[in-house]
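Researcher: Good morning. I'm working through a list of sequences from a screen, and I'd like to move beyond sequence-only analysis. For each chain I'm collecting a predicted structure so we can compare shapes side by side. This is the next one on the list. No need for commentary yet; just the structure.
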Amino acid sequence: MRTAKDTSTFYTSTLVAFSDAKYRFLFIDIGEEGTGDGGTWQKCNLARAITINRAGLPQDRNLPNDDEPILFHIVANDAFALKSWMMKPYSHQSQDPTERLYSYRLSHARRVVENAFGLLQMRWRVFGMTMQQDIQVCKKITLCACVMHNLAL
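Model: Good morning. Structure tokens for this chain:
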């Protein structure tokens, strides 16, 4: 999200979100001016709760015909720090074929949330241009648009 206070100054803010398979936003947090994905994540309440006791993540479950529980993980891009409950792609610098396949399949899983962002932007065209409002107003617009996006699905 880009906002302009005047004609020469631009501010950016990052929207971090979880979505389900139906493109609904389950959690959203908007970072402060100029913070990236990782910085926004480190400051959000859900990150702290998950770090402490995995709050917010579903309980581990067994797959059909299996007695080993499968842990739930968050799928993230490479801007995030690696955690035991977070999956992210390997570094692009030195991937062997197995790592390249893992990163490719992980990127397909991440497409769900990327598509949710795309639907949000298509539905409310204001996200495809620079907003002329104050950064706090832009955050409220974004939060409201995410709620309306969920209601419209």
